[in-house]
Amino acid sequence: MTPPPARRRRTGAAPVHSFPRRGAVRRAQAITTYGVGSLIAVDHESFIVSGLDEAEQSWSRDESPRIHERRLARLLDVDYFRLPPASDDTSRDGLRVRRFPLMHSCPECNDLQRHRDFNPPAGRSVCGTCEVDLVPSRFVVACEAGHLGEFPYWQWVHRSKDRGASPTALCGGKLKLRTSGHTSSLRSILVSCTCGQAPEVSLEGSFRRNALKDLGLKCRGPRPWLGASAPAQECGLSLRTLQRGSSAVWQPVLKSALSIPPWSDGRADPLAEHWDALREYDEREHVEIYLKGVFKGRCPVPLDEVMALLDAEREEDPDGEAAPTFDHRYRALRNKEYERLCAGNDESEHTRDEQFVCETPLGDQTVLGPLGVTGPMLVKKLREVRALKAFTRLVDAESTTGAKEMPLSNTPLRWLPAMQVRGEGVFLRLDEDRLDNWEKTTAVAARIERMRTAHQRMLEERADDPSRVTASPASPRMVLLHTLAHILIDEWSLEAGYPAASLRERLYAADDMAGVLVYTATSDSAGSLGGLVAQGEPQLLDQTLRSAVRRAEWCSSDPLCMETEASGAGGINLAACHACVMLPETSCEHNNVLLDRALLVGTPGDPHLGFFANLLDH
């Protein structure tokens, strides 16, 4: 990671710099943890990852190779994706960062002021007078629109006795910050001003929801990750005080897709930037004329394949809406993946470049009949692309509306940051007839209604316009498949030697879908080695499912866990806790919400509630 370049006249030559390297992050972290707009601590310093505007040259094109996934690019309205720059010894540039927050304090002289006002030596973050390391402000402020700013220390000190903002102009004094040392609470952090017009005050109460509103402060729309080229936006929302390292400061909005035929062999990649134009033509001769004009008669993809790819893309167009919503188009993408996972592809269709190999296991699948499981598939080869679409602050990225998503640049881009993961997995479905009968059970419907009501209430509370909020996805089959995926991942982490964090779920739950894909989420030593695929053979899968269900019957927190009326954030879970079915956040699509193991194994009062209750001896 390097600081951004100073403002310079644009020239045709690539910029050459000698900025110091501040730290290193893995490529995947530049999407999931330290993406654009996030705060990163390096030793005793704090930085914010710069935006992707072309003028800022924040990502070196030589170190950010392109990757393609047409289905996901179409969903996100971009032409292609780029891998983040690698932070290794071969990297000459890497991610650009800016110092943030700018307010620092000196533990020796207790001065609290902007970093540059300490007159630190070039390349160092020390007090120019005391020569001790400066401490970045522990606190920042943010609003639900995604803006981020400095904590208003001056206004906090000079507030009036009735907690309102003081009308006094800047007093000319210097702020001081010290800790009393009596406790580790906010009460022990004391701020004062040398002007003498205001008494020394602590930061106690600064985290109240209306603490800054009571001072008359509202968000002015600062976007420090975009630099001086992006002026502040008109906002006016309420500000909240946050710890600099809080997870609420930055949450990524990630979207992903599997590479499936006919897009999974890479042959369509040279046409990545032309598909939107090609979609305008229905006639073969018109497509041919366009390709000849663009490629000067040397199109790298045969015309027959281009027409077949256009037909395949039109098949994924969602039906029923003239202007389908983003969620509707995302469901259409999942539907196509489900169809391909169910159908698989024959050995004869494979080429060396094929990135999706899905085959039927050789064993006898009838052993899975008593479990209500059908159609297992061995996904021997898969590729997933995960793109960083935007980010949020203060609100849950999984349940937010588009209005609260902050873009990664000040100007529209035709690409987004993304990671590609190659691995393997096991896909299985639930028997539709048995599932339909189970879903109609009164007790099942009652439990799901409790979860759906709690989830819908949370979505409405976090939405800008409650009347336009998306309906909760909670349904009997969705919660059942979600919990089933969790116990399978837990079982394979215990029996097959996979770390739980190296496995990931992908749910296919809708009126016409009832499947789950468990696959390797990393491509390191726990990646594509064939061990997970071996677990999908019917005999092994039968043993795994029976063992996982029996293990889920009891939790070390029972009877509290099983009998709770609500658990988890917002009371969205029922019988689910970290001692039984919860997973590492990276393994779960829904941030460990909408889980209930009672739907798998039943309850002591109603043992037949569970879908797999017949496997247990009650």
Task: Pick out its properties.
618 residues; alpha+beta; 8-stranded mixed β-sheet; 6-stranded antiparallel β-sheet
Structure description:
This protein has 618 residues and is α+β, with helices and mostly antiparallel strands. The chain has 14 helices and 20 strands. The protein has helices at residues 29-32, 70-76, 153-157, 275-278, 284-295, 303-315, 326-343, 432-439, 442-462, 476-495, 531-534, 538-552, 560-563, 598-601; strands at residues 39-42, 45-49, 66-67, 80-82, 97-99, 103-105, 111-114, 135-136, 139-142, 148-150, 175-179, 189-193, 201-202, 240-243, 251-258, 357-359, 373-392, 415-430, 503-510, 513-520. The strands form 4 sheets. Strands 3, 4, 15, 16, 17, 18, 19 and 20 form an 8-stranded mixed beta sheet that branches. Strand 1 (39-42) and strand 2 (45-49) form a beta hairpin. Helix 10 packs across helix 12 (538-552). It is globular.
Q: Name the helicity range.
A: 10-25%
Q: Mean pLDDT, nearest integer?
A: 85
What coarse outline follows from CA principal-axis ratios?
globular
Please count the helical segments. Answer: 14
> What's the end-to-end separation, in Å?
58 Å
In terms of DSSP E residues, the strand content is 15-25%
Tell how many strands the DSSP assignment holds. Answer: 20
As a whole number of angstroms, the C-alpha radius of gyration is: 27 Å
Q: What structural class do the secondary elements suggest?
A: alpha+beta
Query: What about the largest sheet?
Result: 8 strands, mixed
